[in-house]
Amino acid sequence: MKKEALLLFKNAFKQAFRNKIQLVGLVILVLLSSTIFSLMQTSLSRISNEYSLLISNDPQHGSNSENGFHGISLLPSLIIFEIIF
Question: Secondary structure of 39-60 in the HEC alphabet?
Fold first, then answer.
């Protein structure tokens, strides 16, 4: 079983190196997808931190929630701001 798996990978790498365009395209696709994932995770983390900071420093909405507004409507504005800048 191990020998067949080794032969399978050996044949796949040999075939990939024959077709250079396919290998380059695969490398670009992996780099692009990992970059997009990293940017999305970083943006999500920064938005969450900024939102928490904004809500905690806002005296109007800090502990006063009798009007039903908890600052949730500010989140889309922060997301749009973060995406643009």
Answer: HHHHHHHHHHHHHHHHHHHCCC
* Alpha-carbon gap, residue 50 to 17, rounded angstroms: 47
Selection from 84, 8, 10 nearest residue 47 by Cα: 84
Nearest-angstrom CA–CA distance, 58 and 72: 13
CA distance 80 to 45: 14
Query: Residue 1 carries which side chain, given as an amino acid letter?
Result: M
Q: What is the mean pLDDT of each run of 10 residues along the chain (85 residues)?
A: 82 81 88 95 89 78 49 55 55
The answer to whether the predicted template modeling score (pTM) of the entire model surpasses 0.90 is no
